[in-house]
Write a structure and sequence with these properties.
It contains 9 helices and 10 strands. The protein is α/β, with parallel strands linked by helices. The protein is globular.
Length: 306
């Protein structure tokens, strides 16, 4: 089955050029407000954290400030824990789970860790509920030096001085039904490849980094989240989204080779969460709770296993 069966832009078998990207961008519309839903909550954290603008996305006529939330009393003798959300802007609980963690849970780690959190890496995508940026680039395939994706390049620049100092990095994501109905067909069309239908896992799972999988760390996060929402079972062929399940609720990717956010530092412990917000067994609040629980479990494990 070809991508033309599902996606209205481009010629089957031919990768997109600038004309197709412009046509795709024209189909995207602003559906929610980064300023109201994200920046307002970040600003409210100033009483307890240092807030820094680490970059700005210039997508004329729009411009988006990018903010990082840092421990106020940064101490180089303490372990550094990194939390990122909204790399894919449409993955709502990645953004709001990170904010919820900052608002409700982060205070209990004061004086014990250096916390650095970027709640929304991709605000243009957040507003349009989309995976890509305006150039039809996926930020989570472009975390590398001299990245063509502004979102990825800005975060790379922020983290470059800390790359060897981060003990734990957790990157908060979702897998949604729209992955199969919109984003994978669009990807196939963009790249001039056939669209091959897949499956959407019902439940939470983790993507470990195959370069440093740390299975006990992954299972500690899974155990914490299982108290909040259900863990995705493997498909009959033993995979989740086509990748072999290596442990309960865990698959692996080569994060650095693929340009994924979880591979951006040399963190000893690193993982990517995947919440399923479209499940009839999960509510939006439950999804946010699952993300926050995953962050706490990841920090707790990294503190207990230096």
């Amino acid at each position: 089955m070809t991508s033309s069966s599902f996606y209205p832009i481009g010629t089957p078998g031919t990768p997109w050029g600038p004309v197709e990207v412009v046509a795709w961008r024209a189909r995207q519309s602003r559906k929610r407000s980064y300023a109201d839903e994200v920046l307002g909550r970040v600003d409210a954290l100033r009483a307890h954290f240092d807030i820094a603008e680490y970059g700005r996305l210039d997508y004329a006529p729009e411009s988006y400030p990018l903010y990082a939330v840092r421990s106020r009393d940064w101490n180089d003798t303490l372990p550094t824990m990194l939390v990122t959300g909204g790399v894919h802007g449409y993955e709502t609980s990645g953004v709001h789970g990170a904010l919820q963690f900052l608002e409700r849970d982060a205070s209990r780690y004061a004086g014990r860790i250096n916390l650095l959190c970027v709640p929304c890496v991709s605000p243009w995508g957040y507003e349009r509920i989309h995976r890509w940026n305006p150039d039809a680039l996926d930020p989570n395939r472009n975390f590398r030096e001299h990245s063509p994706a502004q979102e990825s390049a800005a975060l790379w620049g922020l983290l470059a001085p800390l790359r060897g100092q981060v003990r734990m990095h957790i990157d908060l994501h979702e897998t949604t039904d729209s992955d199969e109905s919109e984003f994978r067909p669009a990807l196939a069309a963009r790249d001039g490849k056939p669209f091959e239908p897949g499956t959407i896992p019902d439940g939470f799972y983790l993507c470990a980094d195959s370069a440093r999988p740390e299975p006990d760390f992954q299972q500690a996060v899974i155990a914490a989240v299982a108290r909040v929402t259900h863990i995705a079972p493997a498909d009959p062929d033993g995979t989740i989204i086509g990748s072999p399940v290596v442990a309960h609720g865990v698959i692996e990717y080569d994060c650095r080779r693929l340009g994924l956010c979880a591979g951006i530092t040399d963190a000893h412990y690193r993982t990517t969460t995947e919440v399923y917000p479209d499940s009839p067994r999960a509510t939006p609040a439950q999804c946010n709770d699952a993300q926050a629980a995953a962050v706490c479990a990841a920090i707790d494990y990294a503190l207990a296993h230096p």
